[in-house]
Specification:
The complex is a heterodimer.
Chain A lengths: L19 E8 L2 E8 L4 H8 L18 E4 L2 E4 L12 E3 L12 H9 L8 H16 L21 H7 L10 H13 L8 H5 L2
Parallel strand pairs in A: 1-5
Antiparallel strand pairs in A: 1-2, 3-4, 3-5
Helix pairs in contact in A: 2-5
Chain B lengths: L23 H6 L14 E7 L5 E7 L1 H4 L4 E5 L22 E2 L5 E7 L2 H10 L1 E6 L14 E2 L2 E2 L3 E2 L1 E4 L2 H7 L2 E9 L11 E7 L2 E6 L4 H11 L7 E4 L15 H13 L3 E4 L2 H7 L6 E9 L5 E13 L20 E11 L12 H19 L3 H7 L17 H12 L12 E2 L2 E13 L6 E6 L5 E4 L9 H13 L6 E4 L16 H21 L10 E6 L1 H5 L7 E13 L5 E11 L6 H20 L31 E5 L23 H13 L10 H12 L4
Parallel strand pairs in B: 1-15, 13-14, 17-18, 22-23, 26-27
Antiparallel strand pairs in B: 1-5, 2-4, 2-6, 3-5, 7-18, 8-9, 10-18, 11-16, 12-13, 12-15, 16-17, 19-20, 20-25, 21-22, 21-24, 25-26
The chains are: A alpha+beta, B alpha+beta.
Amino acid sequence: MEPTSPPADGGGAAPAAESRSELVLHVNDVAYTVTVDHRTTVLDLLREHFGLTGAKKGCDHGQCGACTVLVDGRRANSCLLLAVAQDGRRLTTVEGLAEGERLHPLQEAFLDRDAFQCGYCTPGQLCSAAGVLAEAADGFPSHVTPATADPTAPVALTADEIRERMSGNLCRCGAYPRIVEAVADAGARPGGTARSAGQEVAR
Amino acid sequence: MSPDPFPLGPPPYPLGAPLARREGREKVTGTARYAAEHTPPGCAYAWPVAATVARGRITAVDAAGALALPGVCAVLTHENAPRLAVADDPTLSLLQDDRVPHRGWYVALAVADSLETARAAAEAVRVSYATEEHDVLLTAGHPGLYEAEIANGGYPGTRERGDFEGEFAAAPVTVDATYIVPPLHNHPMEPHASTAHWSDGRLTVHDSSQGATKVCEDLAALFSLDTSRVTVVSEHVGGGFGSKGTPRPQVVLAAMAARHTGRPVKLSLPRREMAAVVGHRAPTVQRVRLGAGDDGVLTALAHEIATHTSTVKEFVEQAAVPARMMYTSPNSRTVHRVVPLDVPTPSWMRAPGEAPGMYALESAVDELAVLLDVDPVELRLRNEPDTEPDSDRAFSSRHLIGCLREGAKRFGWLPRDPRPGVRREGDLLLGTGVAAATYPVYVAPSSAEAQAAADGSYRVRVNATDIGTGARTVLAQIAAAALTVPEERVHIEIGNSDLPPAMLAGGSMGTASWGWAVHKACMALRAQLRHHDGPLPAGGLTAVADTRQEAAERSPYARHAFGATFAEVQADTVSGEVRLRRLLGVYAAGRILNSRTARSQFIGGMTMGLGMALMEGSRLDPAFGDFAECDLASYHVPVCADVPQIEAHWLDEEDPHLNPMGSKGIGEIGIVGTAAAVANAFRHATGIRLRDLPLSADKVLPRLRARQEGTG
């Protein structure tokens, strides 16, 4: 998609100039040039100003993971990021996972497995899972990775690995068993990690 | 009962098929919009101000500092907020007077051009109070406890049958134990949110609710409007678990602020404030006494609970109600005592009554099994009643025994060495436990409209709500089966109060209530189509139906769903941490209408039960009067790593005494029984009977140490 500059008012009306800054954020391959209130989080910027309401606000305190997005390819709680500190970053939200009508393998797997109920945590689960696939491919260990594992090799995503790595994303409907299956399915599919964040890290 | 039930035999579009959720694609692509995700032009943002004292009166509100901030539109207080009609639910009488009934009660609302400014403005509002002494601590002997006349659900507070005291005193084997369930919080992932907009005297709100019809009716009453002038949209709802069952403060505040400012207003409740204003499961102190013969058959059963409510309104968690129908109990006493304290108002949380009550009852039954040295599955089989003990009505269907047997087989329950403390893996002690589950069958009147279009498609309209259950999908299945047409030709419209009014999603009765109305409308449409010759008119044919009459009929049968839950746990003797190893439930809940979404609901309920057993609970701080654990960092709900293996199964249960679908509700029974199964497994692992949920390390470790030192 060609970069565009959507409406630039990113922070509501009228605080003094010293409390606002201009910055550029690349969201799902679209460049947004905005002037933001310094108090504005990335999550609120996405939801209230860009109309990208896929990332959810569950707690606003980094406790639930519903707001998870990828920042330069790695997952982050967007409610804990002040937008003003993210100038130039490349963000992927749930709206950016699919390629046109073609769903990301994780999205397909979540549908196949019924890995959600109310759907409110789902965008965060999906972005987090995309991050997990990339982290595992890059050899990041988790709490349950055997200490003897080769730190330069990809980590095999066992059910235990997925459960551990996905535990920052709460699901009150209790879809966890299906989420684990879905992430495993997507990880096992050819191309499951192809569009994951790992590639963007190299940019 | 419908005279024309679904055709038997292999129908072309069977109920029960594992159809995928209709809104699934929107949910995985992030395009499904929830209540806070509608931003009308000119929308302002609101942020509430919560009382910082536990009891008293507001003496002054100084909003000058807030109003001086650039971008602030208004600060609503009890002095300037729109006047509301007297509310049926007094928790909705917001900003109407100076009274502070509990800490966290909303005392003001800041409205501004941006979310950030609204929040800053709320923090800048200065409220002064005349405080009064408060009391927030429930104890079993609290002097303010009284016997409740009615418990939640409309049940009598007290029931007595036979001579409990005499038979209990005479029983050769007795259990007398008290169990404690702390306050629990629903914490749906989507905070309660509303976007309200007034236009030409009409109010439109997007609200995160379990039932837009009820929200519409209540808003109309509060603002003295006809319901035709209020539209409530609850298209996608991020969970509720009871806490969005009826209107909550956000929708009233948003509507007031929108009226006051003349702008659309969006309000999303901060997570940390939810515990105080959206309801919670009230704590219960539950004394259970069982008297049995040497054969284990119960002769006397008493379940007496103490709980709290607020000073705003009486809500009595009906925890002793399931003991009235669960087991043979010729001599029975069930009592609810409640004390109004200066606490937030409790409300429904998934399986109110059954979830905490069956934890206590099923723990006590396990204690009896240990005393008698009888297998706990076998003991339950011996206490199966012929009719519902409380009413002597026949059960429309009761397959608890089938659930226990099927579960025991699938779980590998036997052989089971009943001795505790003998299964070790390093520092871990292992054990297994079982508990029964039950949930009543309810149904409420609903209406629906079915339309056949000239192009061969069908449109079904009913104000159902999908809070994660898959309501659209299952209603399409019900409609397709009734119409005998392919499911994909049926369009479903739900989640809007302009649709035919219907019951809210609660009490595990949504699908039964909506589905019955949908079925009836579709059958009426089918009859119209049968008598129609030639092509359909351009506007199609339409049939409407409501189930007021059907829902009002009292069934001659006692109608309940049943289940059995089996758990294996490990207790770490070094850290005191108790973890689940596996959990298995088998349910008998009538016809399962969509095996895919039903399985997810059962497992979701069981997962919440696991949280209740091992990690969930809050405490009321005696000094400040609020819940100490009010966010998701301190109030722990299960995470992915807490759920290693959990499975749900069901029996094919035919019950002709329910509704045209033959279904019982499934949204709540999963949580019932799970906490007891886990606690019983913990006892089997360690020999320790902890009667105080959750089984957290701070309680477990001292008991384990005491036991190792021979003092426990």
